[in-house]
Amino acid sequence: MELTARIRRMDQVTRVQYALMLLFGGSCLAVAIAPLAPAINTVLVGVLFGITAGLWISHLIGVLHNAAQQASLQ
Fold it and tell me: How far apart are CA 41 and CA 23, in angstroms?
């Protein structure tokens, strides 16, 4: 119950970012073990990992921005 309560307290943007990170990260792992041609496999894993990393970095920048705003208000 603790995890679901923490998820419900998050704002909607954060929940969407986490969901997309899980979606693209899981897809990256699934493609990595999929029996595809090596070139296609490499490209798909790279693209999906890049999207996942971009979402993660975007989330971190947002967290830092919010923390800086809170610090400047105090």
Answer: 17
> pLDDT per residue over 45-70, tens digit each?
999 999 999 999 999 998 899 889 88
DSSP, res 34: S
CA 34 to chain centre: 22
| β strands within 29-69, DSSP E | none
> Domain limits of the chain?
2-73
**DSSP character at residue 9:** H
Q: CB of 2 within 8 A of CB of 36? A: no
CA distance 63 to 71: 12
Per-residue pLDDT for 1 more than 80? no
End-to-end CA distance of the chain: 33
